Amino acid sequence: MPIVACLSKSPRASLLFSELAALDSSYRDLGFVSPSRKALVLGALGSLASDSRMVRLDARRSPQAARSLAQACQAKLDELSEPIEAVLYWGATNWPGNPPDTPFFLITDGPFDPRDPTYPVEWIPRRWPEGYFNLQSELFRRAEHVFTLSEWARTKILELHGVVPGKVTRIGWGPIGSIGGPMISLPPGTRYFLAVGHEWARKGMDLIADAGRRIHARQPDVQTILVGQPEGCEIPPMPGVVQVPHGLPMHVVHQLMRCATAVVVASRFDASPHVIYEALQYGTPVIGSRVCGIPEAISEPLGGHSCEPGSVDSVEEAMQMVLERDPVEARTSARGTYEKSGGWARCAERVHGVISAWRGDR
User: Fold this and answer.
1) Predicted TM-score (pTM) of this structure
2) Domains along the chain?
């Protein structure tokens, strides 16, 4: 039986691919691919940036990296002995193998938009923007179908690349991880907000810290915890704000999530943050900024509350609203929001449905 070969440039795709394989044995997860070191070095040499971080980002968006990724995809496909009916590829930065040979489907967080000033640096190929944009445009047009994690990403693709609306489907997304077992025991009445992530400036950690300081000034029992790599965003010490400026083991982060009053995602840009569903699966409400796909995941007021991007006042107001809600009702509602989303299993069903219809029409 011909198979659908599943490939990705990110290991997180395995969560979706495993659900697809459980639905249909003809889906085969081939793992993820990376550009070769040689390609990255050549891409870095072509960068015009002086900052080392920008050089690394340029290298990963370079034509050399795109060619290397395409070659790595093809090498994975060549290893298969079964006939390949189609390729399902998570990524829109390179061809998923040799494009004329095999039909392909794409999964993407969202496209590069050269007109949008809110895009973070890692989404912007400074050295090769025109070529990168044209490559994405051809990929989206040539794909049999494009799956986006959010409606925000779907709308972007339709606006930027003129793809037929019926050819782009939002599938949603899910949590990266979860843990079982009972919740950790905390002293009665313990209340804290949690924010997790790297690149603190983009994640709005400065806004969360300032809002947490204000809340703590009125309610001294309420703390705010920031976890992750700041990467150049220095936040001064503040009363009621605990900074953990490095990563923590996943099981520790998830225990913190399970017991938090709310998880705060005050990002200035965040296409489809998995932390939202990681929190909601435990019944922890989420406060999220109104950018990209965040609002559709929270489904305010069921999963939590929204705030204006870049506004400390709005973050503080949303945090106060959570504190004033009945905690049992808030957690029940948040958990219900996650169950309604269906997690990765529902995403897989949507992908499978579209590809099954395509197979039937051939």
Assistant:
1) 0.94
2) 3-170 (3.40.50.2000), 191-341 (3.40.50.2000)
